[in-house]
Amino acid sequence: MGVKLTFIGHATWLIEGSKRVLIDPFITSNPQAQAAGITLDSLLDKVDLVVITHGHFDHIENAVDFGKKGIPLVGLFEVAQYLASQGAKNTVGANIGGWFEVEGVRLVFTPAVHSSSLIKDNGEPIYLGNPAGVIVELDGVRIYHTGDTALFGDMALIGELYKPDVMLLPIGSLFTMGITEAVKAVDLVKPKIAIPMHYNTWEPIKQDPEEFKKKVEESSCAEAQVIIVQPGETTEISA
Ligand code: NI
Ligand code: MN
């Protein structure tokens, strides 16, 4: 057993196994997806479930496109309610807490230290609840997508309890952890594989993933292997 993990760019990932799970559908305006030649149309018929970590535009842009096709959208309650109001036919509103199952995929939402809102054209924010991370368990593989987050000490608890095989984590700084914090986050969670994301999408979050890789390898958590996945690339994860 195992899954294929494809980086769509920024914080958007496609996990393919017995089910196909898309996390944080940001495709149309995603410069990394565009550069990799990935279009929304190419993904619309390839997904069984969409999971959303929080309400920021660079995480939910295309959620309703999938939702209008009846593909289940899973997010925190406020995000799910909002997407339903925009025409998504099948939303599952959950919250940070414990395991639940949708379409045969097991999920847990975890805390994230960030914010969650959508900004209307007039500049007013629409409050969309708390931000989250998510653990997705599919075909014997556990993937922890941290969502956008700062470093926090309870990541150790997430690592201890859920023992993720793969940790997808931001290194871009400015909006999220930078490299220094991300190295410590890997140390706390102790995944088998750590994959950086949420960097180099735009100039303000420019980072060198090789520096992240080197620093993780030098840190006390030497057992975590860092894989740098380029937008459009797929990596196989065995269970
Ligand atoms: Ni965000
Ligand atoms: Mn973001």
From TrEMBL:
The organism's superkingdom is given as Bacteria
Q: Where is the Metallo-beta-lactamase domain?
A: 9-198
Please give the Gene3D superfamilies that the UniProt record associates with this protein.
Ribonuclease Z/Hydroxyacylglutathione hydrolase-like
Q: Pfam families, per this entry?
A: Lactamase_B_2
Q: Name one GO molecular function term.
A: hydrolase activity
Q: Which UniProt keywords apply?
A: Hydrolase
Protein's UniProt keywords contain Repeat: no
Q: Which family does it belong to?
A: Belongs to the UPF0173 family.
Q: Which NCBIfam families match?
A: PRK00685.1
This chain's protein is named UPF0173 metal-dependent hydrolase EYH37_01070
